[in-house]
């Protein structure tokens, strides 16, 4: 009697019957010429007849890449077999015709859960056995491997074309490719009506009298369909002045073989407003140590960034934009910034004392962080229990596949967020003493170090102390800080307290200060 209570073996319940569907595909139009689709269908019909299988419906018969599983005909076929319970199998010419994606085996397993087999005409295996499933997965793996090899070969060819000056992507707006079906080196680009409108747009941009919204409006009247929010991306594409850039060759800019839409000079004027002024402009890539604050400092009232230029051998900063423009000598703004940095400078003799006090302040603040960390650990444990319970319910067929996927994804996202937060807490504690020591060493003469550094080191120091930049108040002739690196904030605060105590004016450091960020201690070596 007790035997009736024993667990029954869980086995795949394959659909019975001889009703199947057939799926055929080719990956490009050239395969139509060698009757690949016709051959696939003909051989599939012969395969079915020999085994007394009845093909209820045919799918595919089109150009569909098997690199992913978002194919229109393919999805249509999957939906069909899921709804029609009489379908016992999907017949394909070969397993690579079914899918070449890395998820092919997973897809077969999902079909197996509803009892549908995937059969191949030229790779006949018993997919109901462990050995057969292994063979099927190997065929899928080889298909995916072949794809990766092709992609690698194609990518190498594209990189070679790009470095030789031949564009390999979709034709940019403003051009028509008269030989788009040829290889990249045989492409022939001609300027079309949209291109002629773009030429005028570059001129308007270079003149500096119109913004992108106004330029797009004028272009629309001329017959253009370019929206203003895409205009900046288009006008900043060096393709139009004869050069090629691409994600496959990061950091490189290549002289292209195509006909430029505009001159390099017009492109520069449209993209670097300072060049269009009466001053000798400084490009974004110029690294003059005298102009290290450009784009780092913003004008407090307007929020406009400073850029730089040279006039009669003297360096100047000026704000971008036309609202409340501001020009000032670079040496004066640099001197003021150096003085601001010096506020975080400490006496070398205080280093040992300050190190202990800064660490005390941080560690006291971290008590709350450690408590929060414990709460997160408990939440992670609860989440693991939920996931195990969910899996058990799915295995015991208490919930359907769609609900399992829905809640499994939900729990995974929650787990990912909690682990991210836990990582932030761990980051706070790691290498804390090293960070404080480095900060104290830098703070001993930070103003002088910045003064004597070259452009790159100046910008590193700036971002190190003021990660979000700094604002200049023209009325008070002083800087406002958006946010100061946690370590430097504490060093300045603790040093101020220590100095005050020396002269008999004790002050209290706020041990719950916002100076210690919840999300972690900033690195003392900027990326």
Label the overall shape: flat
Q: Spans with pLDDT under 50 lasting ≥5 residues?
A: 30-35, 274-281, 505-521
Cα-to-Cα separation, first versus last residue:
71 Å
Strand content: 5-15%
Percent of residues in helices: 40-55%
The largest β sheet comes out as: 4 strands, parallel
How many individual helices?
A: 16
What is the spatial order of strands in the main beta sheet?
A: 2-1-3-4
Work out the oligomeric state of the chains in this entry. single chain
- Summing up helix and strand content along with how strands pair, one would put the structural category as alpha/beta
Total number of domains: 4
What does this entry look like structurally?
- The chain is of the alpha/beta class.
- The chain folds into four domains: 19-150, Resolvase, N-terminal catalytic domain (Rossmann fold); 175-271, Hect, E3 ligase catalytic domain fold (Alpha-Beta Complex), CATH 3.90.1750.20; 274-342, no CATH class; 349-502, no CATH class.
- Helices cover 47% and strands 12% of the residues.
- It has 16 helices and 15 strands.
- The protein has helices spanning 36-50, 72-83, 95-98, 104-113, 130-163, 193-207, 212-221, 228-235, 264-271, 330-342, 351-395, 401-429, 432-443, 446-452, 455-465, 486-502; strands at residues 19-26, 54-63, 89-92, 117-120, 175-177, 189-191, 243-244, 254-255, 280-281, 297-299, 306-311, 314-319, 327-329, 470-473, 478-481.
- It has a four-stranded parallel β-sheet with strand order 2-1-3-4, sandwiched between helices. Strands 9-11-12-13 form a four-stranded antiparallel β-sheet. Strands 10-14-15 form a three-stranded mixed β-sheet, with helices on one face.
- Strand 11 and strand 12 form a beta hairpin.
- Helix 14 (446-452) packs antiparallel against helix 15.
- The longest helix is centred in the C-terminal third of the chain and has 45 residues, at 351-395.
- It is flat, with a radius of gyration of 34 Å.
- The relative contact order is 0.06.
- Mean pLDDT is 79; it is low at 30-35, 274-281 and 505-521.
């Amino acid at each position: 009697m007790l035997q009736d209570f024993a667990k029954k073996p869980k086995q795949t319940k394959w659909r019975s019957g001889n009703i199947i569907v057939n799926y055929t595909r080719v990956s490009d139009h050239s395969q139509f010429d060698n009757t690949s689709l016709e051959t696939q269908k003909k051989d599939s019909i012969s395969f079915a007849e020999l085994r007394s299988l009845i093909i209820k419906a045919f799918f595919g018969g089109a150009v569909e890449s098997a690199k992913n599983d978002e194919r229109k005909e393919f999805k249509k076929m999957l939906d069909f077999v899921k709804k029609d319970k009489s379908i016992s199998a999907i017949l394909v010419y070969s397993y690579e015709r079914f899918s070449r994606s890395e998820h092919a085996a997973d897809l077969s397993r999902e079909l197996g859960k509803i009892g549908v087999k995937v059969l191949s005409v030229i790779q006949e295996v018993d997919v109901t056995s462990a050995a057969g499933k292994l063979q099927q997965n190997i065929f899928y793996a080889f298909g995916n491997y072949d794809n990766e090899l092709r992609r690698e070969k194609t990518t190498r060819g594209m990189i070679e074309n790009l470095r030789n000056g031949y564009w390999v992507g979709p034709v940019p707006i403003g051009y028509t490719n008269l030989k788009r079906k040829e290889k990249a080196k045989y492409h022939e680009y001609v300027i079309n009506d949209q291109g002629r409108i773009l030429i005028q747009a570059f001129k308007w941009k270079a003149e500096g009298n119109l913004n992108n919204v106004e330029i797009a409006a004028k272009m629309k009247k001329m017959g253009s369909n370019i929206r203003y929010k895409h205009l900046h991306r288009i006008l900043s594409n060096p393709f139009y002045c004869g050069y090629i850039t691409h994600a496959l060759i990061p950091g490189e800019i290549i002289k292209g073989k195509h006909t430029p839409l505009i001159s390099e000079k017009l492109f520069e004027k449209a993209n670097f407003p300072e060049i269009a002024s009466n001053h000798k402009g400084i490009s974004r890539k110029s690294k003059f140590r005298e102009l290290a604050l450009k784009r780092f400092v913003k004008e407090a009232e307007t929020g406009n960034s400073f850029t730089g230029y040279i006039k009669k051998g003297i360096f100047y900063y000026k704000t971008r934009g036309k609202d409340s423009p501001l020009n000032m000598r670079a040496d004066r703004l640099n001197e003021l910034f150096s003085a601001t940095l010096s506020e975080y400078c400490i006496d070398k003799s205080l280093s040992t004392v300050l190190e202990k006090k800064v660490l005390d302040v941080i560690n006291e603040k971290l008590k709350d962080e450690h408590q929060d960390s414990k709460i997160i650990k408990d939440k992670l444990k609860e989440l693991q229990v939920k996931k195990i319970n969910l899996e058990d319910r799915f295995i015991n067929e208490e919930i359907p596949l769609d609900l399992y996927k829905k809640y499994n994804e939900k729990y995974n996202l929650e787990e990912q967020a909690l682990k991210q937060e836990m990582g932030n807490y761990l980051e706070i504690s790691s290498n804390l003493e090293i960070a404080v020591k480095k900060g104290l060493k830098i703070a001993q003469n930070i103003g002088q170090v910045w003064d004597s550094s070259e452009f790159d080191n100046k910008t590193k120091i700036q971002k190190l102390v003021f990660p979000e930049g700094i604002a200049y108040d023209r009325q008070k002739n002083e800087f406002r800080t958006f946010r100061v690196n946690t370590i430097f904030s504490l060093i300045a605060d603790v040093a101020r307290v220590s100095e005050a105590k020396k002269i008999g004016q004790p002050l209290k450091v706020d041990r719950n200060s916002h100076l210690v960020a919840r999300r972690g201690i900033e690195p003392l070596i900027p990326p």
